[in-house]
Design a protein that fits this description.
- The complex is a heterodimer of chains A (271) and B (627).
- By secondary structure, chain A is α+β, with helices and mostly antiparallel strands.
- Chain A folds into two domains: 112 residues, Alpha-Beta Plaits, CATH 3.30.70.580; 157 residues.
- Helix content of chain A is 20%, strand content 32%.
- Chain A is built from five helices and twelve strands.
- In chain A, the strands form two sheets. In chain A, strands 1, 2, 3, 4, 5, 8, 9, 10, 11 and 12 form a ten-stranded mixed beta sheet that branches.
- Chain A is elongated.
- Chain A starts with a strand and ends with a strand.
- With 627 residues, chain B is an alpha/beta fold.
- Chain B is 34% helix and 14% strand.
- Chain B has 20 helices and 19 strands.
- In chain B, strands 2-1-3-4-5-6 form a six-stranded mixed beta sheet. A four-stranded parallel beta sheet of chain B has the order 15-16-17-18, with helices on one face. In chain B, strands 10-13-14 form a three-stranded parallel beta sheet, covered by helices on one side.
- In chain B, helix 13 packs parallel to helix 14 and helix 14 packs parallel to helix 15.
- The longest helix of chain B has 19 residues.
- Chain B is globular, with a radius of gyration of 25 Å.
- Classes of the chains: A alpha+beta (271), B alpha/beta (627).
- Chains A and B meet through helix 1 of A and helix 1 and helix 9 of B.
Chain lengths: 271, 627
């Protein structure tokens, strides 16, 4: 059977790279004694599949991995508890869900291949507040914003704007005002601790500091990363003749990863 | 409890592998620094991935933190990128656990595992804001302690340390902490504390000893400055390894470190007595752990770390009497746990082939031998109890079992070496390859691959070769060329591959290893000139060092190339490792006469380590007749 684990990454562990996160969970699973399945061969490895890597310095409440267990049935709450016991400060297990059995003769669907969208909460870094929030408003109004994307197979120009489905402003109390929303995502009307934000860097955000959120396409086809949105904002600022924004102008938090279900985005955990 | 990071996000994003500096690993000890009497910073002066691989620090970290009155934290050398930023932005060196400045600690303990870390020691002190010279430190500065193998001849860096702990750390650190607390409570300062520390066996306070020199540059005397300071400092030894602390809750790094596995120490010390080997002498007597204790340690450590690899560590694991029992007991359990057991280089016998087939992928792995030298004559000189037949026989067994890759390790420049001995290395490689081609064709798996690696012999203190000259860099390069040419002349040249270790670092290592206090100013100057991470080839600046050594009148001729006389006072003569200078000299003469000295397991040769009254020295030996 397969299970899907959703976890948060925050605090000092935001400086842990993706490969190190994977190694951490392999060892945590070994310590927990969960009946994890191993591959065959001379050097068997755990059957684990991580969703999307998170950029260094970002926090997240929407990190996922799928794994295969040799047991026929498990209590997800018990699995969650056993994994949570093996966490250190900076990791938190949010949920464990049992994945439906795969139909015979169908391709295996891992968390990675199901990703279609992501939602991010961002806070301007000090000194950038005014220009950045102006750019957010301008980006929400614009029809397109093309920036250079660095990918493994070279650089290309992508229209970031067309990959953004919703942009919202978040006020001090956590209330969200949508500047643009095409209805593909369910944008929350309020950001509160229900999002697991108690763990994240945003739990201690500055009083009176404006924040914004955006929901984007993600996954292998058209991945709009938080960095790409930040470069779009820099582009908008530049075009409006403002002072150029520095390379690092926001701190970003991944709220959730989504898959597509009946033309609507639902979290990977409830897909 | 989680402390704010010492480095800003901006800096962490600018440096390579920021996870080196954030701490927070599994099994990291958390305490409130305000609730303890003593704060101890434990340092391995190299980058995190190297330092975190070291078992000794894990042992001491665990031992200190078992004490309620002490909080031991870790610190490693910032990598060159962060080093620059810290200097520019005046960021003081910090501990990983609480991310607080090292200068606020009571102690800074630095382990000295290799000579080439000396400039990194200065980097640590400097970045921490601690005066480099012990004599310039005040009550505001931590007490700086050195330990580890290089502290057996700590003279080149003696000026930079308040004291050295000579020997194994598990024994008297408790006494030192108690002494520190009592001295503080009585209103005593640094000076009073160091004086009292010198009364604890194994503690060497360099400022309490005067060194005088003869006109020819050799040492006239090394004398304590007062009567209550012991003239000889005797190393600390753990008598019963089953009895001493072992870190069950090993720290589990996030980063992939050099030794990314559970390390299990089977035994300490070695019974072989190879005459070039310092570890074989300073860790005498050989002491084994019981199989029962090892099995329980292994299980606990796998449970608490979740590591998927376990490594057995010791100087010569084949000699460990419980090896078969332990390995056979653990091998199936490891498979069930999906843990791969990695064996150190074993003497290849039926047992080794059987075990290797079970734990290694025959197609991918190679077998390793360390013949050290190419001829039997030289093997007698170095007292390596291994014959060509042993090696050929072992290789034959491994080839039969399916292996086709062999790695051979040799040393060039050993005392009495001739061209014939150098050529012998290539010939031995050739014979091993030939052995493979003796197999019937259907039992072979393609071509055999024999890799020959050579390093440069460095004469170390507390070895029978401590009186011996090393060869010059030029001579070494000639030997290398000769060996390369001879390899190419061999019948099976196509199956042989030759790698060598660079000679420039070795030359400096030789000076540090047998150096005296007059080396210190040069080390300091090299550090000021920007030398750090000398152990890393890409950061080693030979020309800078060469120029500074020349300016200080420190010559290769004096430190490396001359033969020392029997009555010369050596810079480390005031350190007592149990093994006597007389025994070492006897061994030096045996070496010159190409005489073998038996292994401790066969017969006691009276080295002096029996004075510790433990380990092999207390066991009845096999009679020679039974051999």
């Amino acid at each position: 059977m397969n299970i899907r684990v959703c976890f948060s990454k925050f605090d000092r562990l935001r400086f842990l790279g993706h490969l190190d996160v994977m190694r951490f969970f392999q060892r945590a699973i070994a310590r927990s004694g969960l009946p994890i399945a191993y591959s065959n061969g001379f050097h068997p490895h755990m059957i684990l599949s991580f969703a999307q890597p998170l950029a260094l310095s970002m926090t997240s409440d929407g990190e996922y991995f799928d794994c295969e267990l040799t047991a026929d049935s498990v209590d997800p709450a018990d699995v969650r508890e056993r994994l949570q016991k093996e966490m250190c400060d900076g990791f938190f297990i949010n949920s464990v869900t049992v994945l439906p059995e795969r139909e015979p003769n169908t391709k295996k669907q891992t968390g990675m291949s199901q990703i279609a969208g992501a939602m991010y909460l961002c806070e301007p870094l000090s000194g950038c507040e005014e220009i950045l929030m102006q750019s957010v408003r301008a980006l929400a109004k614009s029809k397109s914003c093309t920036v250079l994307k660095q990918a493994k197979n070279g650089e290309r120009m992508v229209d970031v704007r067309s990959g953004i489905h919703a942009i919202g402003l978040v006020d001090e109390s956590g209330e969200v005002t949508c500047l643009s929303d095409d209805g593909v995502f369910s944008v929350p009307s309020e950001i509160n601790s229900g999002w697991g934000l108690d763990h994240s860097v945003h739990a201690s955000h500055k009083d009176g500091q404006a924040r914004f959120l955006f929901a984007v396409d993600a996954g292998s086809e058209n991945n709009i990363s938080a960095e790409l949105v930040a470069s779009a904002l820099r582009r908008v600022a530049e075009e409006s003749g403002e002072e150029p924004l520095p390379e690092r102008c926001v701190s970003s938090h991944r709220m959730e990863l989504y898959g597509m279900k009946e033309e609507h985005m639902v979290s990977l955990a409830s897909l | 409890m989680s402390y704010p990071l010492a480095l800003s996000d901006d800096i962490l994003l600018r440096v390579e592998k920021p996870a080196r500096y954030i701490g927070g690993e599994i099994n990291m000890v958390k305490k409130d620094p305000a609730s303890v009497d003593v704060r101890f910073a434990m340092c391995f002066p190299d980058v995190y991935e190297v330092g975190m691989s070291h078992l000794g620090i894990q042992i001491l970290y665990d031992m200190f933190n078992r004490r309620e009155d002490t909080y031991c934290e870790r610190v490693y050398s910032p990598w060159v990128d962060l080093d620059k930023i810290m200097r520019k932005e005046h960021i003081p060196l910090f501990s990983l656990e609480t991310q607080t400045p090292i200068k606020n600690f009571d102690f800074l303990g630095i382990t000295l595992q290799y000579e080439m870390c000396y400039t990194n020691v200065l980097q640590i002190l400097d970045l921490a804001g601690i005066p480099l010279h012990a004599e310039d430190r005040t009550e505001e500065d931590p007490i700086v302690i050195g330990g580890g193998p290089c502290s057996y001849n700590p003279e080149p860096i003696a000026d930079f340390f308040d004291f050295f702990y000579i020997g194994e750390g598990e024994t008297v650190y408790g006494d030192i902490i108690e002494l520190y607390k009592a001295n503080k409570a009585a209103g005593g300062g640094r000076k009073e504390f160091l004086r009292q520390v010198s009364h604890i066996e194994g503690m060497y306070v360099p400022s309490l000893y005067n060194v005088d020199y003869n006109e020819d540059g050799t040492i006239r005397s090394i004398l304590p400055i007062a009567e209550d300071v012991p003239a000889k400092i005797r190393k600390q030894v753990v008598k019963d390894l089953d009895d001493c602390v072992y870190p069950e809750k090993q720290l589990l790094p996030f980063l992939r470190v050099i030794q990314d596995r559970v390390v299990l120490e089977l035994q300490r010390g070695c019974t072989r007595g190879c005459r070039f080997c310092q570890a074989g002498m300073i860790y005498r007597p050989n002491r084994e752990r019981s199989v029962e204790h090892l099995l329980s340690m292994a299980r606990t450590m796998l449970d608490v770390t979740g590591q998927d690899e376990m490594n057995l560590s010791s100087l010569s694991s084949s000699d460990f009497s419980g090896l078969q029992e332990f390995v056979y007991a653990m091998i199936d359990e490891c498979r069930e746990r999906h843990v791969s057991l990695s064996l150190p280089s074993l003497r290849i016998d039926a047992f080794a082939v059987d075990v290797m087939q079970k734990v290694q992928d025959v197609n991918k792995s190679s077998i390793t031998f360390a013949p050290e030298v190419g001829t039997q004559r030289m093997r007698n000189v170095i007292n390596k109890g291994l014959t060509d037949e042993d090696i050929l026989d072992g290789a034959g067994k491994a080839f039969n079992a399916g292996w086709n890759k062999v790695k051979l390790y040799f040393m060039l420049g050993l005392p009495t070496e001739t061209d014939e001995d150098v050529k012998g290395i290539a010939q031995l490689g050739n014979s091993i390859a030939a052995k493979y081609y003796e197999l019937p064709k259907d039992k072979r798996h393609g071509r055999v691959n024999v890799t020959i690696s050579t390093s440069y012999f460095i004469a170390k203190p507390f070895t029978p070769f401590q009186w011996m000259p090393m060869i010059s860099k030029e001579h070494f390069l000639e030997n290398q060329r000769l060996l390369k040419a001879t390899v190419n002349e061999q019948l099976n040249a196509k199956s042989l591959e030759y790698h060598w270790h660079d000679a420039e670092t070795s030359e400096l290592e030789g000076i540090f290893a047998r150096g005296d206090r007059r080396i210190a100013p040069a080390i300091e100057e090299a550090y000021r000139a920007g030398c750090i991470y000398d152990a890393w080839t890409e950061h080693f600046h030979y020309n800078v060092w060469k120029e500074i050594l020349d300016r200080h009148g420190i010559t290769i001729e004096f430190y490396n190339l001359r033969e020392r006389s029997k009555d010369e006072i050596l810079p480390w003569d005031h350190i007592d490792i149990g093994v006597t200078k007389e025994f070492l000299y006897r061994e030096y003469e045996n070496a010159k006469q190409e005489q073998i000295t038996p292994n401790c397991m066969k017969q006691c040769s009276g080295c002096g380590a029996a004075a510790f009254g433990c380990g092999i020295c207390r066991k009845p030996r096999k009679k020679e007749a039974e051999e």
